[in-house]
Amino acid sequence: MLFLLAIVIGAAAFLFGPERKQNHSIDGMFAMDDELNESYQTLKRTFGGNEVILVVYRDSNLFEPEGQQRQRLICEKLNRVDGLDGDAMSIDSLCTLIRQYNIDQYRFALTLAGFDISSSGVIDAAKTLFTGYTHSADGKTAAIVILLKSKEISDIPRSDIVANLREAIGAAVSQTQFESEVQLIGEPVMIADGFRMVQNDGKRLGVVATITLMAVVLICFRSLRWTLIPAAIVQYALLITEKWISTIGIEVTIVGSMSAAIITVIAVSTTIHLITRIRQNISAGQEYHAATESALRELSTPITIASLTDAFGFGALWFAELEPVQDFATVMVIGSLMVLLAFWLITPAIALFRGLDFLPFWNLRPSRTGLQSAFTKSLSVPLMIAERYPRLLLVLVAGIVMISVIGIQQNTIESDFTKNFRDNSKIVKSYRFVEENLGGAGVWDIMIPTTKQLNVNFLAKVKKLQNRLRTEVQFEVEGGDERPGLTKVLSLVDAVEAFSNKPIETLPASYLGVGMAGFDKVLPQFRRSLFNADPNDEKKSYYRVMLRSPERSTSAQKRSVIGQVNQICREEFPQAENASRSNFDLPQEVRATGFYVLLTFMIDSVIRDQWTTFGIAAVGIVAVLTVVFFDPRLAVIGLVPNLLPIIMVLGFFGWFGIPLNLGIALIAAVSIGLSIDSSVHYIIAFQRNRKNSSTIESLTCVQDQVGRALVYATLALMLGFLSLCFSDFLPTIYFGATAMIAMFGGLIGNLFLLPLFIRFIYSQS
Length: 765
What we know:
Blueprint: H1 2-16, H2 35-46, E1 52-58, H3 65-78, H4 91-101, H5 107-112, H6 119-129, E2 141-147, H7 158-173, E3 183-185, H8 187-221, H9 224-247, H10 259-283, H11 288-315, H12 323-352, H13 369-388, H14 390-408, H15 426-438, E4 442-450, H16 456-472, E5 474-476, E6 482-484, E7 488-490, H17 492-500, H18 509-522, H19 524-528, E8 531-534, E9 537-549, H20 555-572, E10 591-593, H21 595-629, H22 632-655, H23 662-665, H24 667-690, H25 695-722, H26 730-763
Antiparallel strand pairs: 1-2, 1-3, 4-9, 4-10, 5-6, 7-9, 8-9
C-alpha cells in the first residue's frame, strides 16, 4: 500500500508539477528591502536598467580606417540583436555622431560667446573623456558599450541575449581579422555564464554522486537489490522536491547547484545504516526477510530523528539575510523530509519483495568472518584509547580548539566574484584582459539626489567631489604601498568641460541648458545614463557619477575603497542638493551603489550570518535530541563531537590564509545537521543496549554494531561530497571539500570522544 501511494504521488508530481523558474540576476541574491538592494534597484530603474555589456578586443589600428571599419562591422552585427537599449556605442560611433552634428557651422556664434570649440576639438575631447570606457589609454584596445533594456520593457532572458551577442560577434570575426580574441564581459555575461555552469553542475553532480554511491554500495555489500533501493529513493526524493519547490515559487539561484548531490548523499547514508543492521542480523542467524523486518523496526526511530536533525541544520539557514541562502535552506529542508518520505514509502516494498530472490547477488549476505573480525578489532581501538587515556584525549581536543579559534580570528573573505570560477574559464580570462588593458573591471556608481534642472553651483560641487575621489581614495597593497582605489571617475561635469573647453565654474547658467539640449540631440543615451528622473516619481531626479576600480583585489581593500568613497560623499553632500524629506522618500545620504558594492558585501553578509545560523542549528538540534533521549546531557554530548571538526576546518582556513567564499560560508550549519546523524544512531543504540547491560558492555557492543555503519555511512558521505569537487563553480568545490573534512572529523569524534563522554556521564549517575 505504501509503494502504491508512492507511485500515485510521484505520478501526480511528474504530470502536474510546474517547472522551476530561474532568477539570473545578482540583485536576486538580496532581499528586496535590503538597503544595498534598494539603492541598486533605484539605480537600475532610473538609468535604464544599468545592465552594461562590453565587447572588448585588441586592435593596434583602432583609430585608422581599417580599425574603424572593424568597429562599424561589429556594431552593425550587434545592433541586430533584440533586447538592446539603443545602438551599441563605440569611440567610432561617438565620433561619427559628433561629425554629423557639425559643430563648425556654429563656430562664429560660439566664438562670440567666448567658446573655442570645433568639431575636431570635440572629437579629441571625446577620445580623452571616454578613455578607459570605449578604448584604452594607449589606443590599442577597443571596448564597445551595450546597454540592455530593463526587464520591465523586455522579457527576453539575459542568457538568450548573451548567446545572441556571441553569435553576432562570431559572424563579425569571420568577416575580418582581429589581433586577439573578442571578449564579452559585464554583469549580465558573468551571471549568465555563472548560472549556466551552476545548472550544468546541478545536473552532472547529482548523476555523478548517484553513480559513485551506487558503486560503493555494490562493492561493499554485493547486493543488486540494495544498490537499486537507494537509487530509487534518490530519484523519487529529487522529483518530489523539485516539483514542490516549483509549486511554492522558489527560483533557481546561483547557490543551488549542490542541492541534488546533497540529497543523494543523505539518501544513501540513511540506507547504509539499514543495510549494515540487516547484515548484522543475518550474521546472527536470521533469514534475510526476517532480518530486514527486524532492522526496519529497530532503526525506525534513529532514521526518522536523523532526517529531522538534517532538516534542522538546513533550516537554520532561514535566518540568513540573503534570499538565495534562505531558498537553499527551504530546498534542503524539503529535500531532507522527502528523503525520509521516500525511504518509508519505497524501501519496505523493494526490500521485502520475494519475486527476484533467485537472482545471484540479489539479497544481502553476511559479511565475511575474517573481514568482520578485523573490523571489530579496529573499532575497539578508539574505545580502548578513550578508556585508557581520557585526560590526554581531552587535553589534545582543548589544544586543537584553542588553535582553531585563533585561526578563525584570522579568517578573510573572498569578494572577487571572478575567483568563484576556475582560472582557465572564459569569465576569468575576460576580466583579466579588461583589468590589464582598460583599467579596473569593477563597475559602480554614486547616486546624488537633486532637482530636475541642473545648475552650475551643483555641478561645481560635483566637480570638487570627483577631484577628491581621484586624489584621496587609495588602498594598501603588499609591502605597505598605496595604489589609487579608483581607475576612472566620470560624470556629466567631465563631459560639459570637455565639450565646452571651459571650467564648469566659468560657464554662464544660460549655456548649461543649451549644452544639455545638445547632449540630448547628439548623445541622448549618454545623458540619460548620467542624469535622469526616477520613472516611479518624476519629482525625484538623480545625478550619477560612474566609478571604476580594480576588480581583482581583496575584500578588505574593496571595503576600504567603498568606505572612503562614502565618507567623501557624506562630507561633500551632507544632505541631497535642494531635496527635502517631505518630497523625497529615499534617505538623503549620497552613497555608493552598483554591482561592485553588492558583490563586496554579499559574502560579508553570509559570513556574518554563519555563526548565527550555526548557533540556531546547534540549539534546535539539542532541543530535538533532548526530547528523543529524555536526557539533555546526552543531547549536548551528541553535539560536541560534530562541532569540533567544523571549528577546526574554519580555523584551518584562517591559519593558511584561504579566503572564505560562499561555499565555505554555508558549511557550518549544513555539516552539523549531517554529521549529527551518526551521534543519533550511536546514542539510541547505547540506550537500547544499556537496558540489559552495563555501560562498558553497552559501549563495546555499540562500537561494534553501530561503529561499522558509521564508517560505511561516512565513506558514502565523503564520496558523495567528492562529486562536488568536479564543479566549475569554486564555492561548490570548497563546499564539497570542507564537507568531506567535516564528515571525517565527525566520524573520529563519534568513535573516540562520544564513548568517552558517555562513560563520564554514566559514571556520575
